[in-house]
């Protein structure tokens, strides 16, 4: 950890080992740097203190797998593209439909692992936090009634990057939304121009590596229809560019009225760090559509909320609350301060429009699918 008073006139006297006695979230190399930084730090100290008190709660994580165990299935290794399957045996991944209907109270990783009959030492959460975040966001946004009425769910997913190499993981939405036609528009500047307009159809969950597993059988899709009584489909459309630059053209040219988004999601957005989000947020506000943004830690959520309030005039009506959708794998390697260990989401609701903000933490993507991922993200 760097000295919080670094660059304040005098050079640092050594490593930053002197922590703030109140919040414990920042450290200094010397008493003089701590004193010179106090006028700035005093405004955030109480807030950071409250965040640090939640570290014990945020470390309540059910998984039992370790870096050594996950390395056996290729975690962190760079491999050439292979296919769109899990690089795992069938007993460690959700490669076929669930054996029982989804629970109404599915609210945590433990609930999910039990429902999908996956052992806690399976590393699938490294990738499944994306579809699980969408599922949880849909619950927060209260779109269930719309889904029941139309059997359709349209989501605009903003700023995808790492997801582009792991799109097969989103096939899990077939199990999470049975009998629903799910369509996701991935829109962002990280999408290469040559992939602009590309359409991906996912007909099943990502397959396992076992040659004789039922997931390789065509009867798997038929059994899903028989169980739900309705056909489930999953399509993904890629759009290159900023949402605020691209959306009006999309709405007029590409999207029929029934594909207007039920929900807008922007995972790990970095709202406070990137000014380009402000025109996007302004557009979402004018659209009057529910939007859920996530950020990298609780403090980033606070800064994002401040940016939204100053940029749009929307104040928050509810305090941050903890939501049990998270992924804090390799937290010691990826995160700078202990407060960023948070495995829970933090929800903030403005008073006068449907904007919602919650937190999911940064993670290190592992090669648990045969998709040629070369991603190491901190």
Automatic annotation (TrEMBL):
Domain called MYND-type: residue spans: 3-45
Keyword set, alphabetical order: Metal-binding, Zinc, Zinc-finger
InterPro entries noted in UniProt: Mss51-like_C (IPR046824), Znf_MYND (IPR002893)
GO molecular function, one term: zinc ion binding
The keyword Zinc-finger is assigned to this record: yes
Name of a matching Pfam family: zf-MYND
Entry protein name: MYND-type domain-containing protein
Natural source organism: Dovyalis caffra
């Amino acid at each position: 950890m760097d000295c919080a008073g670094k660059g304040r006139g005098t050079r640092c006297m050594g490593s930053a080992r002197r922590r703030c006695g109140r919040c414990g979230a920042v450290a200094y190399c010397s008493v003089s740097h701590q004193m010179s930084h106090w006028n700035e730090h005093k405004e955030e100290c109480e807030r950071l203190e409250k965040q640090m008190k939640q570290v014990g709660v945020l470390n309540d994580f059910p998984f039992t797998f370790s870096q050594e165990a996950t390395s056996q299935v290729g975690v962190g290794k760079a491999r050439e593209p292979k296919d769109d399957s899990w690089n795992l045996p069938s007993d460690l991944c959700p490669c076929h439909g669930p054996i029982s209907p989804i629970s109404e109270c599915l609210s945590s990783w433990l609930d999910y692992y039990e429902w999908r009959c996956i052992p806690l030492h399976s590393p699938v959460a490294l990738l499944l936090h994306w579809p699980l975040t969408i599922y949880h966001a849909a619950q927060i946004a209260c779109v269930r009634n719309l889904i029941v009425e139309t059997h359709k769910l349209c989501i605009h997913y903003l700023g995808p990057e790492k997801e582009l190499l792991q799109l097969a993981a989103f096939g899990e939405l077939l199990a999470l939304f049975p009998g629903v036609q799910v369509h996701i528009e991935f829109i962002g500047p990280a999408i290469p121009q040559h992939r602009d307009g590309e359409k991906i159809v996912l007909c099943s969950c990502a397959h396992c590596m076992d040659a004789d597993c039922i997931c390789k059988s065509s009867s798997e899709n038929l059994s899903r229809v028989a169980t739900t009584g309705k056909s489930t489909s999953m399509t993904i459309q890629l759009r290159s560019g900023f949402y605020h630059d691209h959306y009006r053209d999309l709405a007029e040219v590409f999207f029929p009225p029934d594909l207007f988004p039920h929900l807008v999601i922007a995972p790990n957005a970095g709202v406070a760090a990137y000014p380009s989000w402000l025109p996007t947020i302004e557009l979402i506000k004018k659209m009057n559509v529910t939007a859920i943004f996530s950020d990298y830690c609780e403090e980033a959520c606070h800064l994002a909320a401040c940016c939204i309030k100053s940029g749009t005039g929307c104040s928050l009506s509810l305090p941050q609350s903890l939501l049990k959708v998270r992924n804090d794998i390799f937290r010691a390697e990826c995160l700078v301060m202990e407060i960023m260990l948070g495995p829970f989401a933090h929800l903030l609701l403005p008073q006068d429009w449907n904007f919602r903000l919650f937190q999911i933490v940064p993670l290190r993507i592992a090669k648990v699918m045969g998709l040629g991922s070369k991603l190491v993200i901190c």
